[in-house]
Amino acid sequence: MIRKNEPRRLRVVVVGQGYVGLPLAVRAAEMGHSVVGLDVDAGRIKRLMVGESYVEDVSDRRLAPLLAAGVYQPTVDPADCAGFDVAVVTVPTPLRDGAPDLSHVEDAARTLARHLTQGATVVLESTTYPGTTEEVFRPLLERGSGLTAGRDFHLGYSPERIDPGNPTWRLENTPKVVSGITPSSLEAVRDFYGSLVDTVVPVVSCKEAELTKLLENTFRHVNIALANELAVFAHDLGIDVWAAIDAASTKPFGFMRFTPGPGVGGHCLPVDPSYLSWRVERTLGRNFRFVELANDVNNHMPDYVVRRLVAGLNERGKPLKGSRILLLGLAYKANTGDARETPAARIAELLTGMGAEVQAADPHVLDDAHPRAAGLGDLQRVEVTPGLLRTVDATVLLADHDAFDYPLISAHSPYILDCRRRLTGAHVDSL
After folding, report:
1. What are phi and psi of 121, to 5 degrees?
2. Overall pTM surpassing 0.70 (yes/no)
3. Mean pLDDT of the region 308-327
């Protein structure tokens, strides 16, 4: 029979050492647990083993003492999972041809099943459609272990809420939604996360927890799409949409500020709402119209940025073909190196395909930080200097990192298309 997890040092396995799994593994080790960080990427594990982090939220300084004390063990060997008390799965869940790809989740379940013992707790954190934990994840664990979830081991779901690069809301002070397939599973999951974070929020079932994550991201996706479409129409109407947003933001109730941008990126917005849309269509035979509209608007923002750039160059008597274009910011958001699904990749692809000479600068997205996976591998990387800025025909601000020297950029760029409203002047067009 399963036993209640008591406050003690647990052997914890975190499957996936990316933007979600690495901060979780490090936090668990810092709070006194013995942690194994499993990942299939040997390059990642090699870096972690020598104390080199590739995630901004985890510094090398945090890794060093954990490795020295032996409380954090990065590995590619599934055998190192043996004897775990708690296992958390934080692997990617991409879309393939518009449908959820759960292959990484399924592989993780099969791996953990071989080492699953009575009394252990398994938690899925990967974003997915409602029903995944019980309909996909659970059967694989039971089949591979010969144990029964809810009777022999605990099983639950807890949606990740990692916001890369956010200095205010971190893993430990962001409320953590938790769920379990039985009351005892919920209690075990709640007890584990209660040792890591300030606030734990239990919900009635795994499906509600799975839907919580999709609701949060669909809300953002739809409202960003609204701001983006307003920006397009306001420009054509000769209205400053940014001024309108600023004014609306003074209302102390009933309004939440969202701003336009060159598109959406990361795993959350380009992918997660489509999981919900897919589930609704597959199960109910109906379309989730808000998600489909938001996808259409946000997916076409890179095309709109290029159209605006072409128009801006034309006004200055320059064709796009043969022009030198500098892209500032390759990450999908400010002050992070996260380039997953970044709109910068599509913008660079379009500009290059139209004959422009494209260069890029980003102090956070390094050459070895998976640029090819993000579609940025062939971009020429440059350092932003007065001399460089004076030689380009257009500078396009895509991600407004605080590290950029905006007065220098403004002073030396002949023409700027600002997608984030950080610059002003007669030579600056705002999105």
Report:
1. -125, 130
2. yes
3. 96
